Amino acid sequence: MKTEPKQRLDPRAKLLWRVTGTLQAVPVLVGGVFGSYVLYASAEVALHLAVLPVLGALALAVLLVGLLPTLLWRRWRYEIRPLEIDLQRGLVQVTRTLVPMARVQHVDTRRGPLQRRLGLATVVFYTAAGPNEIPQLAQKTAAEVRDRIAELTRTADEL
Amino acid sequence: MSSSTLAETAERRLHPAGMLLAALATVRRWFGLAAFPGIAALLNGEFGMRTLLLVLLGIALIAVLSVVWGVLSWRATTYQVSGGAFHFKQGVLQKSERSLPLERIQSVDTVQGVVQRVFGVVGVRIEAAGGGGEPEISLSALSRPAAGALREELTRSTRRASTEVLDEPALLRSLAVRDLLLAGVTSGQIGVAATVVFGAWQAVERVLPRDFAQRLSEAFLPRTFSELLLLLLAVALFSWLLAILGTVFAHAGFTLSRSPDGKYLHISRGLLERHESTVPLARIQAIRVVEGVLRQPFGLASLRVESAGFGAERGVSTILFPLIPRREVGEFLRIAVPEFAAPLDNLKPLPGRARRRYAFRSALPVLVLATPYAVLFFPGGLAGLLLALPAALYGLLRYGAAGQGLDLDRLVLRFRRLARTTVVAPRGRLQSRGYSVSPFQRRVGLATLKIEVASGSGGTVFRLVDVDAKVAEGLVEALSERARIV
């Protein structure tokens, strides 16, 4: 347990998260601008106070687009071992999860429209307690990981 | 599938009482729609002979149609066991036909409601494992022998013919009347019952004519502080009685027994409506020993099981036994569910440096809420901050209750969320295990241990906050498959 899981997600994951981050940042920015406008024009608050909502929204947008994707990617690691799948993820709170191969019921890969554009895919494996994901792998890697998990669960069942 | 004793039976109908049950269900559905306007109209006193006749005519019409519908749907409902599957046909206009492979059948439970009891029949609920669609089929009325025969046919493929013994199930434990009442008194469901009481009052207020409701509230609503206290006391007392009644109705005559082949636990309970359910031992994922706030001081606990693939809901636990003295739990587990009989005491406590974090974490929400209040109403408002003290004390209690232990292959976690709960989960039942570390925890070398077990059609997560980080890593390692092979 001393060693972290070895594999990382595909570097393009950062790009994908920047895109989704931008999509999330748009309404935040619109809200910020609207808030400042209302404060300045209608409530007649001093300008240096009225810009605060816009500044806040900007900071949040920078966080969503610039910072979080990198941090997320740096933390996300996985490793497929013969007897278990080892996951590590999290931004502030780091979570380590181990799923025994013998508990895995089935495994798929999944690709959203954006992922298809970037050539990425998500591996989803299910236990009786629900799904677990390894997101944003290169399509080829994702297929390999999926097949390897499927293969290993079969041998784990035979044990 | 390979068994040579595949049951082949003809199509069968429900017991004729099924007609009445279907009719009653229809009446109930229509009555629900008609009741409120009807009662409101009657109470408003705006009815003459003509409205009365209309209402009676409506009732008669609904009754006749319901009976006709009942007969038709009884005729349309058949079941059959053939070709290794259970076939169920129903529907008068919209016909439906379902086939359930026998090996997918999880459990066959019987329920006996009041009407069913009058006719000496039982309802049978057949639950299937996972996969889309409705997870269960329910047959409203079968005679006892027919239900027994069906259960036999449905479960034959999963049981080996050679182990079939005709013994009666062995009684493991039954709930004495004294314990039933004690369970009701200590159930701690007062809060739930109180919301029911208030909800009922609001509903009544809406239905009653306005001036009547007003007179009623004028008569009962308190005008002085002592009257308010009295009213609250009365509501609390009434809710308590309701809670006791609820427990008595649900758990009267609770018995737990084990099937002769030792693979199933049978639970039978209920006063008016008898519930009989079967829990396959192989499907039990974890055991919870729950010591409620009102029960712990008296050394009492209730037992629950998490079992996999039951019903449509996720994370539902079943009551294994409603009330049992804490010191008898170990012995009881050894007999009823030996796989889970880990020692529940002498768990390892959390490290001392977690104590402050527990106290602080409980007090934090109070502080956050009370601080603005203290600032706004400066000197007087400071009193609100005093509430943080009991919150911190509760945190210390939670700290004191928390602990963990590993007994061979079984992980034992204990924590408090009002009730003190001890969870036993064997290694082979953990769907995943792990830990998480927040920046604050990292500074002091602590971690939150997390395990996940299957429950219902999903999973339940159990957490133990602020375990020593090294200990958490060690536990996760010790529970790995590799550790078993060595």
Mean pLDDT of chain B: 83
Structural class of chain A: alpha+beta
The end-to-end span of chain A amounts to 24 Å
Query: In what order do the strands lie side by side in the largest sheet of chain B?
Result: 7-6-5-11-10-9-8
Low-pLDDT residue intervals, each spanning 5 or more residues of chain A = none
| Largest interface between protein chains, with number of residues from each side | A-B, 24 and 28 residues
The backbone outline of chain B, from C-alpha atoms, is: flat
What is the global morphology of chain A?
elongated
Assign a percent range to the helix content of chain A: 40-55%
Main sheet summary of chain B: 7 strands, antiparallel
β-strand number of chain A: 7
What spatial order of strands do you see in the largest sheet of chain A?
Answer: 1-2-3-4
Structure characterization notes:
The complex is a heterodimer of chains A (159) and B (486). Chain A has five helices and seven strands. With 159 residues, chain A is an alpha+beta fold. Chain A has a four-stranded antiparallel β-sheet. In chain A, a hairpin with a 2-residue loop joins strand 6 (120-127) and strand 7 (130-138). Chain A is elongated and about 75 Å long. The model of chain A has no long low-confidence stretch (mean pLDDT 90). Chain B has helices spanning 17-44, 49-76, 114-118, 144-155, 177-185, 190-207, 210-220, 225-251, 329-336, 353-376, 378-381, 388-401, 439-444, 469-478, 481-485; strands at 12-13, 78-82, 85-90, 96-101, 105-112, 121-128, 136-143, 170-174, 255-258, 264-269, 274-280, 284-291, 300-307, 317-325, 348-349, 403-407, 410-417, 419-426, 430-437, 446-455, 458-468. Residues 1-6, 160-166 and 311-315 of chain B have low confidence and may be disordered. Classes of the chains: A alpha+beta (159), B alpha+beta (486). Chain A binds chain B through residues 1-2, 83-84, 87, 90, 92-103, 127-130, 132, 156, and chain B through 308-309, 314, 430-439, 450, 452-455, 458-460, 473-474, 476-477, 480-482. Strand 4 (94-100) of chain A pairs antiparallel with strand 19 (430-437) of chain B.
